[in-house]
């Protein structure tokens, strides 16, 4: 996540833990959420296209930075909401691990259709403290993320738990192999084939830790109702994390508007 050039120590102050058992509840204050557009516009854009790739596309196509960024970002609606929930989860993990370094393949860069979610497990991140040497301290995090920004019948907590079970059965391994295929085909700038193989072929390395997480990113005004009757999974199987965001819909729309506006800075540099 270093390529996002975020101050993860400062970002960690955004996530306030208000409950840690039997599951975790994280609250983001209104004042902190109000800063997201300014703080996250560039990092969110980089989740979809890196600076070098953006500059290369501008040079190769003579198309404006804004047009290229528009071709990457989702439209307003459920996909934008879901993508924001996934990115926020990835940032939360990176801030929680700081000063440790989290490696993330940025699955949002690998979409074939910007109007749809990326395939496979939602968030896959690696912590490899002694790399290039594999060690027993190596960890891989796999999170299933559900986002609810407006009132409705969806049940993000129960759905995140249920779909996280799919990750720990088969989907997680399929996702790692899909990422390896992408690495071989087009290349991944943030994770190597060797790092993927460290977890695809675990018997060839010291035993590592797999952590499965069910994450629900919910508008703060809806959280109390969504928490009623929650039955968390056994902690030994997966962690349940609920992240409360004030005015979630307005917040993520402002962030994506800011991500598009970063084109102006890119074009000024060019």
Automatic annotation (TrEMBL):
Residues 30-258 form the Anti-bacteriophage protein A/HamA C-terminal domain. Pfam families: HamA. This is DUF1837 domain-containing protein. InterPro entries: AbpA_HamA_C. It comes from the Bacteria. It comes from Microbacterium algeriense.
